[in-house]
Known about the structure:
Layout: H1 29-48, E1 56-59, E2 65-67, E3 75-80, H2 87-99, E4 106-112, H3 116-123, H4 128-133, E5 136-138, H5 143-147, E6 154-156, E7 159-161, E8 165-169, E9 175-180, H6 190-200
Parallel strand pairs: 3-4, 4-5
Antiparallel strand pairs: 1-2, 1-5, 3-8, 6-7, 8-9
Amino acid sequence: MRSWGREGRQKSPLRRKKSEYLPFPALPARRAMKHLLAVLLLVTFSATAATPEDFTVRAAAGKGSFTLKEARGKFVAIHFLLKTECPLCLKHTRDYFTKAPTLPNAVQLFLKPDSDNEIEAWAAKLPAEDLAKNPIYRDPYAKLAKAFDIPDGYKFHGQVVHYPATVLIGPDGKEVFRHVGKSNSDRLSFEALAAKVAELSK
């Protein structure tokens, strides 16, 4: 059936509203541009992001080191702790220290971007016996966090630092899962990590 306008003229398909041709409602120009840029950034990130295949980090005060390739065959949970004094980081680390023996096929790697002295002072509040088994390693200037694309920009204790995060590396040395917290209290629990390791081990 033909469609006629008020003046009795047939509507031309060329005179239809632009929104009728779009699969979604028309957005204001500025919002549409922001949406497009966000999509492009996401595509670019997905296409180019690649985690390091290997790295070596040194324990605070030179008490040993860790090299990723030497842990092949096991899962490695890399915990990117926050810079400066962080009581929640201590609680998170203590909880993992206590429960880690129940997950023998996963290595727990704790990293802080502070100086040796700062890490030593902070780690002194952890059980010495557990600390001997699980040293706190240093990530100078958060270089490894940057290499793993851990988002920066979290305001904490008067500083701007990267967000708290846990990255899980599979037995083949490739990243298989990550959790980036939205705040200091948003951490991956040991139980959640254990469940993920069990899921990926099937």
